[in-house]
Write a structure and sequence with these properties.
single chain, 93 residues, two-stranded antiparallel ribbon, 4 strands
């Protein structure tokens, strides 16, 4: 049976009607950025599913960390390049 961290949540009711929930449980180590954890999983568990997408005719396409980390990295690089060319960022048609 999986073990979960016990919860300890503080509720703050704001004058504007918003409800803010915060945990008192401190975070453990976190990745520097998305690329850091993506590359970590690509190295540590390359055959683990990163993303599963419903396809045509009921097929499900499985994208694996090890195989598809480059696709994600290329898309990120295109987005950065697109921001230099267009103020609106990456544009897809």
């Amino acid at each position: 049976m999986p073990s979960f961290i016990s919860h300890d949540v503080v509720r703050e009711d704001r004058p504007d009607g918003a409800i803010l929930l915060r945990t008192r449980v401190p975070l453990g180590p976190v990745a520097r950025n998305t690329g850091a954890w993506l590359h970590r999983w690509a190295k540590d568990a390359p055959d683990r599913v990163l993303l599963a997408v419903d396809g045509a005719f009921g097929n499900i396409a499985h994208h694996l960390y090890g195989r598809d980390v480059g696709v994600v990295q290329n898309a990120a690089e295109l987005n950065v390049l697109g921001r230099h060319q267009h103020a609106g960022g990456l544009r897809m048609s």
